[in-house]
Amino acid sequence: MVRLRLTRVGKKKQPSYRLVAANSTSPRDGRFIEILGHYNPLTDPPTVVFKEDKILAWLQKGAQPTDAVKQLLVTGGIWQKFTGKEHKWPEPPKQEPAPSPAPEASVPSEAVKEPVETA
Predict the structure, then answer these.
(1) Is residue 26 part of a domain?
(2) Tally of domains within the chain
(3) Residue 105: which residues within 8 A CB-CB, separation 6 or more?
(4) Tens-digit pLDDT profile for the chain (119 aa)?
(5) Is 96 within a domain?
């Protein structure tokens, strides 16, 4: 199976990635079929350059993107062009308000005795 995935390039502590079409059994930085773009997360904003026509061609041939690549394709708008519909981001789960603590039972003032100091 062909997968669209990121291969790591760059120096130590300075990663950048290539988007490649590769066989799913090949290693992460191993053999690939074609380079489809590059991604640099260290720039502000992150640099994303993809060859849209080649990516769409691979997707139509049945290539499966990894989760990270799919997020980049959704952000770049390429995934919407492939599927023909807009991507819906999952909504965060709604948090129910914490139950308020039970009211404390009032103790009659007669039952509460203050300590008596003795000298």
Answers:
(1) yes
(2) 1
(3) none
(4) 889 999 999 899 999 999 999 988 888 788 888 999 999 999 988 888 999 999 999 999 999 999 999 999 888 888 888 887 776 667 778 777 767 676 666 666 566 666 777 76
(5) no
